UniProtKB/TrEMBL annotation:
It comes from the Bacteria. GO terms for biological process: DNA transposition. Transmembrane segments: none annotated. Residues 12-187 form the Transposase IS200-like domain. This is Transposase IS200-like domain-containing protein. It comes from Marinobacter segnicrescens. InterPro entries: Transposase_17, Transposase_17_sf. SMART domains: Y1_Tnp (SM01321).
Length: 323
């Protein structure tokens, strides 16, 4: 029996999650459809731009992403502590960038004076919005729903664009986070859509190496489509690699970008027979720190979804037996 999303996503367990959304029937609704000859590649840009803008509005950081022809992957970090630093006006501005809000909120933002009862309503509304802006389900709703509506409008049809709501997997360890990010960044290489990770379009690894997103154009595209009302914040960068453990609060990813890039390239050379070169004689330092052999790492990175799906089914079976 499926578990409620609130039980699957708990920041107290881990702030890191792997999220997947697939097009209905896994058809190529975001890429080139060989059967019809229709090219939907531009929709991959829609998803990438929308995800980056939403990450800036929400208290959610993007660690990695890959937009494929019939699905996309996100690795996110939930950061509710970010919303605690926002003022009430910040919260309202962020939420009203996506939704119009009730009349009392609109009047307040226009500078109109509110009665005491209206102010109490406004305080409750701000509290609700603050919670939503930290919530993964609301983030995915704000991402998937406009994409589906715009695609249906473009195709002149109605009905489902995504096959289901979305799937999420908690990443409980540093090993899980690292292997999942590499799995996501190497998706286009494994699918023969790109020769190298740095040449794979609409992926986080390409964006880290050579930023492509045009913020002004992305905002204008969203404004023109009617799915963004304003953008009062700066574009949030992808979650940074901190490189080493610190005594204070760890905000970023506990590895260096250089080590991660070396690891992704190393893994890509192993799994892509068309790439030049052989298995490097050295092992990336990050593997040694994780206590993994090259074979263990390759299996972890190339079979991430399958391995964690098996682990999840085993855990559910254990809980049923225990009950």
């Amino acid at each position: 029996m499926p578990r409620p999303r609130e039980q699957l996503v708990a920041v107290s367990d881990t702030p890191y999650y792997h999220v997947v959304s697939r097009c209905v029937r896994r058809t190529f609704l975001c890429g080139y459809d060989r059967e019809t000859g229709t090219d939907y590649e531009h929709r991959r840009q829609w998803i990438e731009e929308r995800a980056r803008l939403l990450s800036s509005l929400f208290a959610i950081d993007l660690c990695a992403y890959a937009v494929m022809s019939n699905h996309y992957h996100l690795v996110v970090k939930l950061c509710p502590e970010q919303s605690e630093a926002w003022t009430d006006d910040d919260v309202l501005e962020r939420w009203c960038s996506l939704y119009k809000g009730p009349l009392i909120v609109q009047r307040y933002l226009k500078g109109e004076r509110l009665m005491e009862a209206e102010r109490r309503f406004l305080e409750r509304t701000v509290s609700v919005y603050r919670t939503r802006l930290t919530d993964l389900s609301w983030f995915m709703k704000c991402l998937n729903e406009p994409i589906a509506r715009e695609a249906n409008r473009e195709d002149g049809c109605t009905g489902h664009f995504w096959e289901s709501r979305f799937k999420s997997q908690a990443l409980l360890t540093e090993q899980a986070l690292l292997s999942c990010m590499a799995y996501v960044d190497l998706n286009p290489v494994r699918a023969a859509m790109a020769e190298t990770p740095e040449s794979s379009d609409h992926t986080s690894i390409k964006e880290r190496l050579a930023p492509q997103i045009n913020l002004a154009q992305a905002i204008q595209n969203q404004l023109d489509s009617g799915y963004l009302r304003q953008f009062p914040v700066s574009l949030k960068p992808l979650l940074n690699f901190e490189g080493s453990e610190r005594n204070g609060v760890q905000r970023g990813i506990l590895f260096s970008l250089r080590d991660y890039l070396e690891l992704v390239d190393y893994t890509g050379r192993l799994i892509h027979p068309a790439k030049r070169g052989t298995i490097p004689a050295h092992t990336p330092p990050i593997l040694a720190r994780l206590g993994l052999t090259p074979d263990e790492w390759l299996q972890e990175a190339c079979e991430f979804e399958a391995r964690y799906a098996r682990n999840q089914r085993a855990e559910q079976g254990r809980r049923r037996r225990a009950a």
